Amino acid sequence: MAATAGVKSSSEKRRSSYLHLAYLLAIVVKGLDGAIEAVAGLVIGIAGLWPIYHFVVRITAPEMAETAEGHAAHLLQHGASTLAHASHAFVVTYLLVHGLLKLAIAISLFLGRAWIFPVATAILCGFIVYMSYRLTFHWSVWLLGFALFDGLTLLLVLNEWRNSRHAGH
Fold first, then answer.
1. 30-35 own/partner pairs: CB under 8 Å, 24+ apart
2. pLDDT of 76-128, one tens digit each?
3. Using one digit for the tens of pLDDT, what is the confidence trace for 35-45?
4. Based on the number of CB atoms within 10 Å of its own CB, is 160 exposed (0-12), middle (13-18) or buried (19 or more)?
5. 68-77, pLDDT tens digit by residue?
6. Nearest to 41 by CA among 94, 101, 92, 103
7. Residue 26: which of 92, 105, 88 has the closest Cα?
8. What is the DSSP-derived secondary structure letter of residue 9?
9. Tens digit of pLDDT for each residue in 4-60?
């Protein structure tokens, strides 16, 4: 019996492979999101905030004219308006730092660097705490969604870290 304790059943192996696949998918999404944020930070740094607002208004105007229930268009315009009235330096710095940090974590996790697991765990916890804090002041379905995705990513990172430590023994 003790000899089989270290052997995984086929259902455990399947579950582990599904969780590993979900982990890889979450890491790819997190990396792409980080790259998009970093590029957005560069674009806003060069072009400014108001051209982005005017661009969003221009691309959403047809939907707004067609239907009063254009929820997506309203959300985009509201987000662009909020962004346009924010501090230019803060937006650029936030997008660049946040985006590059997420991209670096995703690349390091994807490459399987052992040192990144505790670092990624701390950073993801920080993101979740900050987003939760922001939600107490201003409710946003988007922010809640990002916090929940970071929570799911955190659980997958912790599972992968645990599995990598067990595989090393």
1. 30/102, 30/105, 30/106, 30/153, 31/102, 31/103, 31/106, 31/107, 31/110, 33/99, 33/102, 34/98, 34/99, 34/100, 34/101, 34/102, 34/103, 34/104, 34/105, 34/106, 35/99, 35/103
2. 666 666 666 666 677 788 788 889 998 999 999 889 888 999 999 999 999 89
3. 998 998 899 88
4. buried
5. 666 666 666 6
6. 92
7. 105
8. P
9. 555 567 777 777 889 999 999 999 999 999 999 899 889 988 988 777 777 777 777
Q: Are 105 and 120 in contact (CB under 8 A)?
A: yes
Structure tokens at 57: 């208004």
- CA atoms of 25 and 13, how far apart (whole Å): 18
The C-alpha R_g of the chain, in whole angstroms, comes to 20
Q: Which ranges constitute the DSSP H helices of the chain?
A: 10-47, 50-66, 71-84, 88-110, 116-137, 141-168
Cα 101 from Cα 152, distance rounded (Å): 18
Instruction: Tokens for 42, please give them.
Output: 């560069």
Q: pLDDT value at position 55?
A: 77
pLDDT, averaged across the chain: 81
